[in-house]
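Reply to dn_fold:

You asked what the input looked like. This is it:
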Amino acid sequence: MIDNFAGKTAVLTGAGSGFGLECARIGMRLGMQLVLVDVQQDALDAVAAEARAAGCEVLAQRVDVADAQQMQQLADAVQQRFGAPHLVFNNAGVGSGGLVWENTVADWQWVLGVNLWGVIHGVRLFTPMMLAAAKADAGYRGHIVNTASMAGLLAPPNMGVYNVSKHAVVSLSETLYHDLALVTEQIGASVLCPYFVPTGITRSERNRPQGMDGERPSKSQLISQAMVGKAVASGKVSAAEVAQKVFDAAAANQFYIFSHPHALGNVQERMQGIVAMRNPPDPFLERPDVGAQLKAALRAD
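and this is what came back:
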């Protein structure tokens, strides 16, 4: 657990919007050294300027987190400028929907590249640096937070490629937690599983790289964009509130971070079904109107 954030270094991917931006703002208020990472240059420039105006030391780097070489260059730059970070927030993510067989190879490569490989690179590059710092200094404390989703604990239909990426992040994070516990008490791990929170994720296509251009969206993908966009826009929990939960978890060594704990009823139903060896339960038990709407839209001519 991190008991004092002042003067500590935080690495934040996806820092230009959503949870990453709001965590950066908390870091500014706490007097942290900030490593700000985003693929969108104008958003990155804006948050870096805000952090410098707040008096923070800043390393801002445009990075595609799916790219191993770019992530290695980031890790090297962090080591050279600040040494091992204390808080690593592997947060960058993109959204994509549609019936699972309708996602193209480019869809899979893009979503898994950012949502999963971005986290993999963050873990494999920064954890050894943090472990070395812990070995050298008994007072060092570090924490790694990976952004998954409630879709990493459920399997909502018409969101297959996104679900797969986020289930993998939950598994990676749980394993990281156990692996760290084997070798140190100085570094912890958490997984963030937000539900519908207004962020920039519904506009992810704006940052889709060249060479992974999507084909014309299928009917199911257009339906997914509309329904998820509406749900996210109507979210009552803000990104700033979720960001505070991230810092609270790092301070308390709390593993699971939920934006909407009341939504865990669906998770409980799924887990009970697994233990009882039942078929997957209706994902719309609590909102049958949404399920009926989705089915009707997909079956309409």
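The chain has a mean pLDDT of 92.
Hope that clears it up.
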